[in-house]
Specification:
- 47% of the residues lie in helices and 14% in strands.
- By secondary structure, it is of the alpha/beta class.
- The chain folds into two domains: 3-186, NAD(P)-binding Rossmann-like Domain (Rossmann fold, 3-Layer(aba) Sandwich); 194-276, N-(1-d-carboxylethyl)-l-norvaline Dehydrogenase, domain 2, CATH 1.10.1040.
- The protein has an eight-stranded mixed beta sheet with strand order 3-2-1-4-5-6-7-8, sandwiched between helices.
- The longest helix is centred in the first third of the chain and has 20 residues, at 39-58.
- The N and C termini lie far apart (46 Å).
- It binds nicotinamide-adenine-dinucleotide.
- Residues 12-18, 35-37, 41, 92-95, 99, 103, 121-123, 144-145, 147, 239-240, 243, 277 line the site of nicotinamide-adenine-dinucleotide.
């Protein structure tokens, strides 16, 4: 498969990442089918895309006509069967290996193009393990976008044990084609990005949990001390605390005790305080 042969990109999940991935692929001229399990999730995904594109219009980066044509290239759906024509499918469903394997098995049956590439946007889970349930594991690769997708330049390309050289090159080329910058790494829990970032976020939560400083002081401190745009607790709210916990749990399981999730993080997830997406996390967004 060559990037120039790709006409239709399928995106699974219309959540925080799925809608951003759909947006950037459509902005690069691809036809996109964005699938989620319930109508309200695809509707919310489309709303987020329109809001994001409107900001680009307001800033004069794209015209209203361009925005309309980008939106018209995205077909939201709840039907898995609509992905039959996809040449590339990027899954961005919840960070759960069983759910991811289930959707990959379904894709095996649905996608008609035998050369189609399947990719996962997982933050930490094994690309090799997911590829094992894909009928063509050589055509499975990690394409890990950063949040918020329309603004973040870097994309991690993860080579699973059986990912072919051709598939890896395809992923690198595709990412350049949509105006982003690929960074390649091997399949290992958390890859480069979250191996380093998640312990930082988790440690920020420990600093709050141990009463060392208030949430405001922790975030302000880290912004000022290290010149990052967001502190660890603000970033956790942006990512989604459930996603952070799933990522830290994977690192803990795969790499040992130094990645142990903070009890406060577990409690907040149990209480449904997931950050911006639910209106409340460390901060209140309501
Ligand atoms: N949030 C981040 O900052 C971030 C960054 C990089 C990567 N990721 C990864 O991206 C993936 C998605 O994360 P998110 O933050 O967008 O989660 P999210 O909870 O915002 O969205 C996930 C969506 O997947 C949908 N879904 C569940 N099962 C599905 C199925 N069978 N078919 C289609 N849709 C299904 C859910 O309904 C939900 O809308 C995860 O693997 C996550 O680790 C997240």
């Amino acid at each position: 498969m060559k990037v120039e042969d790709v006409k239709v990109v399928g995106v699974l999940g219309a959540g925080t990442m799925g809608n951003g991935i759909a947006q950037v692929c459509a902005a690069a001229g691809f036809e996109v089918i964005m699938r989620d399990i319930e109508q309200k999730f695809v509707d919310r995904g489309m709303e987020t895309i329109k809001k994001s594109l409107s900001k680009f219009v307001q800033k004069g980066k794209i015209s209203q006509d361009e925005m309309d044509s980008i939106v018209s290239r995205i077909r939201p759906t709840v039907e898995m069967g609509d992905l039959a024509e996809a040449d590339l499918v990027i899954e961005a469903v919840i960070e759960n290996m069983d759910v991811k394997k289930r959707v990959i098995k379904e894709l095996n049956e649905i996608v008609k193009n035998q050369e189609a590439i399947f990719a996962s946007n997982t933050s930490t889970l094994s690309i090799t393990e997911m590829a094992a349930v894909c009928r063509r594991p050589d055509k499975f690769v990690g394409i890990h976008f950063m949040n918020p997708v329309p603004l973040m330049k870097g994309v991690e390309i993860v080579r699973g044990l059986l990912t072919s050289e051709e598939t890896l090159e395809f992923a690198v080329e595709f990412i350049r084609r949509i105006g982003k910058e690929p960074v390649v790494c091997k399949d290992s829990a958390g890859f480069i990005s979250n191996r380093i970032l998640m312990p930082w976020v988790n440690e920020g939560i420990y600093v709050l949990y141990e009463g060392i400083a208030t949430k405001e002081e922790i975030d302000k401190g880290m912004r000022l001390f290290t010149n990052v745009p967001m502190g660890p607790l603000e970033l956790a709210d942006l990512i989604g605390l459930d996603i952070v916990l799933a990522a830290v749990e994977t690192l803990h399981r795969e790499l040992g005790d130094k990645y142990k999730p903070c009890p406060l993080l577990k409690q907040m997830v149990a209480a449904g305080l997931l950050g911006r997406k639910t209106g409340r996390g460390f901060y209140d967004y309501r």
